[in-house]
Amino acid sequence: MGFVRMTLVSLAVLAGATSAQNANLKRQVSQLRPSYDFVVVGGGTCGLTVADRLTAALPAKNVLVIEYGDVHFAPGLFDPPTLWITPNPDYAPSWDFLALPNPDMANRSASIQVGQTVGGSSAVNGMFFDRGSHLDYDAWTEVSGPDWSWKSLFPYFKKSVTFTPPPPAVAQQYNYTWDISAYGGTGPIYSSWANFQWADQPVLDKSFRELGIRPRTECAGGDKEGICWVPASQHPVTARRSHAGLGHYADVQPRANYDLLVKHQVVRVVYPRGPKSGPPLVEVRSLVDNHLFNVTVSKEVIISAGAFHTPTVLQRSGIGPSSFLGTAGIPVVLDLPGVGSNLQDHVGPPVTWNYTKPYEFWPLPSQMRNTTFKDEATAAFNDPVAHGPYTMAGGNNAIYVSLPHVTAQYKDITKKIRRMATDGTAASYLPPDIRSNTEMIAGYKQQLLVLANLLENSESPSLESPWASSEPIALVWAFLLHPLSRGTVRLNLTDHLAMPILDYRSGSNPVDFDIHLAHLRFLRGVLDTPTMKQHGAVETGPGAAVAADDAALRNYTKEQSFLSFLHPCCTAAMLPKPKGGVVGPDLKVHGAKRLRVVDISILPFLPSAHLSSTAYAVAEKASDIIIGDWH
């Protein structure tokens, strides 16, 4: 069977997976087995990866995945009939969260989307498929232990993905560069570059080089400070989105020991004889008729419900901060204050400008408003080998710049971080309900010291700014890659089964603003480069007057920051229990027998990357750990 045909078949399998012919897709309790060896809570990026690997390696063991959503077609970010980064009517379902108003960000609220479908957020994300710096993952080992270093994770990054270089003519046309040694795997998730870029993509590339940022041949091999080409999680021939619902579910069915139960919510895990007598029962609610039932497990339960829903399941189970559980009226099974704490996300403000001289490039995103151009682009995308504008997935470029390369005052910033970690003030920046908890304070202090070292390293990115075009809106974002502020995820006290309450608390640690201001002032420099002057770039925000005044620039940051770049993490952190941890390096929940967490909630702090690629690597490594325990 040919490469293109295989891909079209796998897409058809997912689209048709709701049919009764798929015996492994379950919709009601009567279709389930009497018991399961493993239950995976959540059919998203990590949950499906784990289920795939366990069912393949342990054919005599059966696995049940329980997913809140259903099977849906998941188009790419820029598939027809979109124009340019606009909503697609075929978009897979998602939860739309609105966090509490943030007093440190002008009382504005973060808006966050999370996938509510088989495939989870890998089915709805921006498809930007980068990896963090090796220094990020090595820094995890300083707070979590040596098992999760870059050296240990790199093979799993490679294992998780099949990377396809562009054809030579396309590579030459767009100056793509790569190092195949950073890849080399044959994983079920595809990554590639589009055979198209907007005509003004080189404008910012050239401007950033003139600003002194060095281009990198490859940024997926662990060295990431500079200008990077970033692949997308899409198939190299069809340009369709590649996600866990395809690679780790549809493409491996039928598999006799792999069941998927959709349209059901895991309410909690239950330890009838206490948390030392696991594995627990899994209490499940049907979303169709609200029927409650228990699933019996013989080996272990793996929670993979994501940064928001994993802590929610744990809290409903009586595993979490005892003070909050008491407020919620839930009996305490395990007092783990880190459950739902340590919330982080990438945030940041933009630098904006207008062009005052003729800007004659073709084609540009505004061409998508031309009916003829759009129709031709759609036809090109639907060819057996897709080509043209719709093969774009948003963008394939970003700069990653360290704090020492951003500002000469970087040591003043890291000195502030170290001071608060040692003078007793760090606790005052934690969420109020854990501010006096000795475990959470100890863990936060250690994170601050590790992050200060990371920020002081000239090879460790502090700033990210992705781009694809300077049109129709001319701006560059200033992502804060390593925020110091910490938020919370807590059960809704009026309805424990409803979406949880998010308190992002961005900017609650004031040093984050010192870094934001440094990032903005650095990025403004791009407008003084010869290329930008050639095109008559005139700054519209923040502007010279605002940038010259700390208070004014801080207010600009509060009012203009994008409060979530959709990278929430770290709410069931892999840390020692005395440091506020929820899981250990083996991802077992502290004090809970045969209960693990495998998703991005286990990250101790954010890497310098969008999280999809890291999620797959974490799940691949976790799968090997679990298989090793049960083989």
Automatic annotation (TrEMBL):
Binding site for FAD: 266
Record-annotated active site: 567 (proton donor), 610 (proton acceptor)
PROSITE patterns noted in UniProt: GMC_OXRED_2
InterPro entries linked: FAD/NAD-bd_sf, GMC_OxRdtase, GMC_OxRdtase_N, GMC_OxRtase_C
Names of the cofactor(s): FAD
GO terms for biological process, alphabetical: secondary metabolite biosynthetic process
Signal sequence range: 1-20
Name assigned to this protein: GMC oxidoreductase
Keyword hit for ATP-binding: no
Domain of life of the organism encoding this protein: Eukaryota
The keyword Signal belongs to this UniProt entry's keyword annotation: yes
Organism ancestry: Eukaryota, Fungi, Dikarya, Ascomycota, Pezizomycotina
PANTHER family cross-referenced by the UniProt entry: DEHYDROGENASE XPTC-RELATED (PTHR11552:SF115), GLUCOSE-METHANOL-CHOLINE GMC OXIDOREDUCTASE (PTHR11552)
Recorded GO MF terms: flavin adenine dinucleotide binding; oxidoreductase activity, acting on CH-OH group of donors
Domain Glucose-methanol-choline oxidoreductase N-terminal: 306-320
Family assignment from sequence similarity: Belongs to the GMC oxidoreductase family.
Annotated keywords: FAD, Flavoprotein, Signal
